[in-house]
Amino acid sequence: MRPVLFVTGHVAADRAGAFERLHERAGIELALYGGRHLHGAPAAPPPASVPHRTIAQHEIGRLVAAGGHRAVVAGTGGRIALPLAWRAARAGGVPFVFWAALPRTPRTAAHLAAVPLMRSIYRNADAVVTYGEHVSAFVRAQGARRVLVAPQSVDNEFWSAPTEPAPRRDGRFAALFVGRATPEKGLAIALEAWRRARLDGTLTIVGEQRARGTLPNGVVAAGAADPAQLRNFYAASDVLVVPSIASRRFVEPWGLVVNEAMNQRTAIIASDAVGATAGGLVRHERNGLVVPAGDADALAGALAALAADRERTAALGAAGAQDVAAYTHEAWAQAFAGALDRVSPPAGRGSVRS
After folding, report:
1. Helix (H) or strand (E) holding 90
2. Is 248 inside any structural domain?
3. How far is CA 222 from CA 169, 259, 329, in A?
4. Per-residue pLDDT at 254
């Protein structure tokens, strides 16, 4: 059976297992063109079990045109990878699946100039696979017809495993922020909220952060952490704070730290700009609290409320562990394989394309 060509910049560490599952189901070949966009996670070597090649973006069109693939998948990364893959697939009559991440169009000159092309892709792709229902609603509004959700996933087995050694707790309220040093991740909002909340506890910052001024009382900058260390931070925390804000050039597509933390029964406080909130994983008063993006007072109030009611906080964390159990690599791969079967069924199986 001819493989599916999956065009992407990198294999991020948290996606390796998902690609392995998809290869088992659909038979894929990864075309990796590199670039700066790392999906918010470190790049990892491609899974040994998945065929792959490294390719320059300008070569993607020729690769698609050469044939040998029963379908082509591409997302929004890269400057020219998507249009080249799309146009070559259309010219060669190869089914094309668009992997859509964004629930709105960023307001940069480059993104706005690409709107006509993107609308054509949304309307004419053989299928569109999205990060969640928030993205599905957006692409349908752009004219997409065959839309499926592949739930954003992490390695739940790893992230839910008991931590070793057991995390140290001193009984005080423990909040956690995990993120990069970019304004859109909302660290400044988190620090201001913590300052206003005046809590007896700690807010730990994990990630490569640039120090700016004196940190508020109770804030600890822990620096970067490897996955096992980060899992320990989740287990030691009552709540993960995800205060992302949208900007002209940035939209938080999901926020996989939410999935990771939920696996350790950590409650979530997330802004309404976080994809995991808009996509339905974070649910207000079910497994966390949702606050308006950029609103330090609202975030401070949410922190204070959970600090004052630890039993409620624990119940939110327990519900999160139940809810995230459905967001698996297998579920992601099953949804993607279903989309591929619709547009290009493997040999010997009848077409179910609509």
Report:
1. helix 81-92
2. yes
3. 16, 21, 29
4. 95
